[in-house]
Amino acid sequence: MDGEVQTRWVPTAASTFETRELHVSNxxxxxxxxxxxxxxxxxxxLASAQTWDFVNTDYIYLMxxxxxxxxxxxxxxxxxxxxxxxxxxx
Length: 90
Hints:
Layout: H1 35-49, E1 61-65, H2 67-75, E2 85-89
Helix pairs in contact: 1-2
Protein name: Alpha/beta hydrolase
InterPro entries: AB_hydrolase_fold
Organism: Candidatus Enterocloster faecavium
């Protein structure tokens, strides 16, 4: 770096799950949402993010809070070769 300031940025994807958007009438019923349907949604986000030019696929992390933490914890083992770490919050 020779004294130069190096700028780094971290691409971040945050998803909301279709059935959670209660203000949109045709997105599905909240009763159709479960941790397992959210795992499927998260897997779709993961697959998509791996195709983005600006994503270093050696450094993909999952992060979730509450039910999002559960979903991340359920997703991570099946994608251990794709995910560097999981950060889970209560």
